Protein 1
Amino acid sequence: AQSVTQLGSHVSVSEGALVLLRCNYSSSVPPYLFWYVQYPNQGLQLLLKYTSAATLVKGINGFEAEFKKSETSFHLTKPSAHMSDAAEYFCAVSDPDTGFQKLVFGTGTRLLVSP
Amino acid sequence: ETGVTQSPTHLIKTRGQQVTLRCSSQSGHNTVSWYQQALGQGPQFIFQYYREEENGRGNFPPRFSGLQFPNYSSELNVNALELDDSALYLCASTRGDRDFTGELFFGEGSRLTVL
């Protein structure tokens, strides 16, 4: 069964600092991988996705992630944090062969940005 | 383009009662899936409907049931409510054909509190 592990339930950074949110996955087949963001009292919004094309994926709001098969990782980064980046971030994995679009989410990482 | 809309946004029920949550999918989307997000957790897949039929189900008991209508809107029904059913219920829509890109479009959710 597929699974996702997000290391760190909370990450705190200062405005302008590097953001690094960690995600490791477990999958028996080449997966699709995603990062979603959830702002308070809102649904989830897709930041970026990996679907077996380029291993370095660029998303919205300056975020990017790199798929590393050897490390089974898909860490999310942003060079310079903004106050508006404060939110909950979820890594998710999908098996493209299941025949339906089920996502398995990690438990999330709350990003806190201080002035 | 109208996004995914859910109703009601908040509701309170007591143990043993039944609840119906509603979702209108985004224009052009024929697949709807439902997720349960308990406090402090990532979303958990409940089930998915494609062209009015359930075509995937997560690890949820039969008292969780659903429907999809010809206009692709959907309902989630939960019978015999338990305290642990308190959660944010998220609806997501997508195109459920071979052009699946892996991106789900989420509504803002229905927050259910069971007392």
Protein 2
Amino acid sequence: DARVTQTPRDKVTEMGQEVTMRCQPILGHNTVFWYRQTMMQGLELLAYFRNRAPLDDSGMPKDRFSAEMPDATLATLKIQPSEPRDSAVYFCASGPSRGETQYFGPGTRLLVL
Amino acid sequence: DAKTTQPPSMDCAEGRAANLPCNHSTISGNEYVYWYRQIHSQGPQYIIHGLKNNETNEMASLIITEDRKSSTLILPHATLRDTAVYYCIVRVDGGNTDKLIFGTGTRLQVFP
């Protein structure tokens, strides 16, 4: 049963530290998405890639956030420096090319103190 | 902004049908209606989607009105495990964007 995997599942860090979240999309999926979920804002799209190229990162704070796909099996989301307002659950999702279905990972729960 | 309107919460007795409404009065001709759900502490899960015909799969049925301004997701025999937040989303298929814009959804509580 193919699934999107995310690591770490939980992360507690102090303000100012760098945070790296990783995602392994489903094999064969060439579209990858990063979402952030908070109680106040709900689910927000941060960025997405197709064939490893960024298509849209307009939802991502550019000064501290960066998203990359070093290869087809790995997507990363980095926050440097982290701030308490970055505390949220970060979801990665993948989908087939222009596919209608996105498959979500279990999320990374981030707490910045 | 989300282009859909859903009631914030609904209750349903276990074993009964759960009918979740969604309004999308500004939907365009090439926009599909998608439903996802999010069980507590998990990532969202795809349920079903449709354009203008009614659709059914192993999870649910989707009824879209003829004018396409609203739709209803039907869980025919709700179980306690169907307790979740259900999101109705309109999305263009085949375009250059795969964005899903999540609204606030409907929190469905299935009770014994």
